[in-house]
UniProtKB/TrEMBL annotation:
Positions of region (Disordered): 1-36
Entry protein name: PilZ domain-containing protein
Amino acid sequence: MMSDVKRPVDERRVGEKLADADRPFPSERRAAGREGATRHARLFWNHGGCMLLGVVLDQNAHGARIRFGDICAVPDAFYIEIEGSDRVRPAVIRWRSLTEIGVAFE
């Protein structure tokens, strides 16, 4: 049983605080934080022949996190239009999961 396993404690480290413990996501790697957003996004590729709708979960001037039902068809580079914006801009995928992508605006 895992609860019966005793682990040694380094007494010197008991009172230490992690450098990024106050941040909500200690593994954050972005240079600029993102503001929460819930807007629709349209991705276009193949010269406008393909389109996918998604929801922007958070965004900043450099990129966004977008959720979809399925992202298997999304190419690495595309154009994106976000609800409330008056422009369509090129973007590239920086990371992907099963239902979300992180994009950087170009």
